[in-house]
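Q: I have 449 residues here and want to know how they pack in 3D. Can you give me a structure?
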Amino acid sequence: MLWVAGIGVARSEGWLGGVAAGIAARLRIDPLIVRGVLVVAALFGLPVIFLYAAAWALLPDVDGRVHVRDLLCRDYQPVQWGILAMAVIGLFPTAPLAGRLFGLGYDGWSALSLISWILGLVLVASLLFLIVRAASRTPARPWRAAGGPGASLALTPPAPPVPLPPGSQDPAALEAWRAQHAAWKEQDQAWRRQQQDVERAARDQLRRERQAEAAVFAAEAAERRRIRRASNPRAGFAFAATMIGLAIITGAAVGLVTGGESLGGALGLLAAALILALGMIVAGAFRRRSGFLAFATVLTLMGGLVAGAFSTLQGFTPGWASISNNRAEHISQPFGDLYLSLNQHDGAPRPIVIEKGSGTTEIYVDAGVELELRATLDTGTAHWTRVEGETATIIDSGIWSFEDRGGESVIVQDISSDRVSATTVQPVTIDQTSGAINVTIYEPVKEDQ
């Protein structure tokens, strides 16, 4: 929280939390520019809503009040529920939506987006626990009445002229009423211009006050940062670069020694985190601070823990995945697209079993490979296509029909190239809930047969 306060950005009065207004006051620009940038970034898939909620919770206001600090001190405020709701909304990724709308090439979940979503969900659950715990220990507060001290009353607009009585035909009275109406209209327009000028002046004054408050807050934050740096100087760049290099070498060596699998990657990240943590200890022993080393250590440690958790789930591949028949595989994929490449080899058959929820399964069959497909698909379609290996020209295509076996839609097909004999038999078993199964058979060019 001290580091966040040292940035020099203070929340101000704005539309929602005052984050955009605080950033605009710090940069001395119009808040509409900041809000427009945030909207554009959100439309292109960046986690702007979640980051905005985090900034709302962590950034102090001009009085130095921080919502997270209030929560940790068991000071419950209704605004904390608004921050939590925004964080929950920010967990829904907008990247797939933007990919479909703008054709950016990504329209599904990836493993990285799933991990980020899970970590964000854990953070929101922790915040919800703290809010409920603080709310249960804090007595309720009465709401502040509107229109308190300092509320200004708007000036009274000029009253319109009294209308003529019904049926009045006096030309002089009618002409006098028209003159009064014209004079009232001019007075009303002048009053409206005066009101606009007053409101514009008030907005300008408020913007100047916000900029002045932000400047004072930034100066105080800079002074605190200067004092902290003077009492605890930063570790040198050479030391930080040395520790980063040692962590990379150690992590790579551990990953290679353990075989480079998912567990090896997790152990490599944890070993790198250990080296970085030792660097933090050495820097602290010499009374040096290194925020970059601390950030890199936490990030590497979290990556190692997440990779280790996924490595315990053998064959679990959420989101997009790509495999081949280099070895026997047993894949469990709850959702996402799966790409399977079947190549020729001289060894024994290598069975591949796929347990899949929703999504598309793409199977590419090389020339000389015979695919023995056994698949169950509750709802969806199964297509096959023959293409030229070099030109990708479609030779033939079709749709496989399902057989009802015990209430399940089953596909049993053996398919291979028509131009060369198969030397590799590849069994593939798919148990898929919904989506599509697409099989592409590559045929060699006739001159190459």
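Q: Anything worth noting?
A: Strands lie at 321-324, 329-335, 338-342, 352-358, 360-365, 369-388, 394-399, 403-405, 408-415, 424-443. Residues 97-107, 140-154 have pLDDT under 50 and may be disordered.
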